[in-house]
Amino acid sequence: MMGGLILSFFTAGPLGLFYGFIGILIAMVAFGWMWKIQILGAGDVKLLMALGALSGAATSTGKNGLTFTVDLALLSLIVGGALALILLIIKGRFLAFLKKFYRFLLTALDKNLETEFPKADSSLQMPFGISIAIASIWVWFDNPLIRWGIRPWN
Amino acid sequence: MNLNLKKGSGTRHRVFALSSFFNTRLGKTCREFISDESGQSVLEYVLLLSATVIGAGLLARGILNSLDSGILKLGGQLEKDLKTGRAPLTVYQN
After folding, report:
1. Which residues of A touch B49 (CB under 8 A)?
2. Are the beta carbons of B49 and A151 separated by less than 8 Å?
3. Which of A90, A140, A150, B68 lies at 20 to 30 Å from A53 by C-alpha?
4. Is A44 close to B57, i.e. CB distance below 8 A?
5. CA end-to-end span of chain A
6. How many CB atoms lie within 10 A of CB B17?
7. A32-36, B58-62, B86-90: which range is least confident on average?
8. Which residue from B minimizes the CA distance to A77?
9. By 3-state DSSP, what share of chain B in percent is helix, strand and coil, each rounded to 5?
């Protein structure tokens, strides 16, 4: 994180340092709550915070320093979702997942039924850092969210 | 103006403030966050979050697009009405 802030300062000056701090803050807000409710590990949040510190350096390459971390967080979730989908299919648990989710929707929409919250199988885990790493390289060199049109602030 | 602290008092105060912060609920959360180095996430939650992000992004984009086209349509209609005289030229006033 310190390295990212120093790099941001040397590449983009005080404004870069400011963007670096904003990036850290955005990363903490975007992923911090997921750590609190135990969806992600604190290591993932810290990795995203460290990459968020590079927001200032990102401005020196023509990117928007304010949206860099948000894009990174969104893309890492999308990449993570794709990896999770592949892993669930490989492990033969995708249909069970769909069934669980369908039961939740059905019970949530019908007032006469007691809502059945889907209980996640905690034995099925993956290292989320991989998706953050893939997303960071992708966002740095060619932001796909712009092409896909799912970025509301284009 | 030169102010001299009593011998050792400043350090003691700072140490006390720091240790009392780490005894609060927020402090405990911070300590837990700093010491936790794990990076494992539950597959099903990640998949749900991902689907939510894509859905929300597409929804936001759709809403913004329909707002854009609505404003353009309104502007075009107003321009047409001003040219044909259906709307008075003073329509912008008040």
Report:
1. 34, 39, 77, 80-81
2. no
3. A150
4. no
5. 28
6. 9
7. B86-90
8. B50
9. 75, 5, 20
The alpha-carbon radius of gyration of chain A (Å, integer) is: 18
- Here the ipTM equals 0.80
Neighbours of B75 (CB within 10 A): 10
A87 vs B87, which has greater pLDDT? A87
Confidence of residue A97 (pLDDT cuts 50, 70, 90): confident
Contacts of A101 in chain B (CB under 8 A): 48
Q: So what's the pLDDT on residue B5? A: 58
CA–CA separation, A99 vs A103, rounded Å?
A: 6
> Would you say A110 and A116 are in contact if contact means Cβ atoms under 8 Å apart?
no
Which of B46, B50, B64, B68 is the best substitution to test chain A (most A C-beta atoms within 10 A)?
Answer: B46
- B9 has pLDDT over 60: no
Instruction: Kindly state whether A29 is in contact with chain B, defined as any CB-CB distance less than 8 angstroms.
Output: no
Which residues of chain B approach chain A closer than 8 Å at the C-beta?
29, 32-34, 36-51, 53-54, 57-58, 60-61, 64
Res. A81 pLDDT band, cuts 50 70 90: very high
Structure tokens at B80: 């047409």
Distance, in Å, from the CA atom of A9 to the CA atom of A49, rounded to the nearest integer, reads 16
Cα gap A104→A111, rounded to integer Å: 12
Q: What is the rounded CA–CA span in Å between residue A48 and residue B39?
A: 11
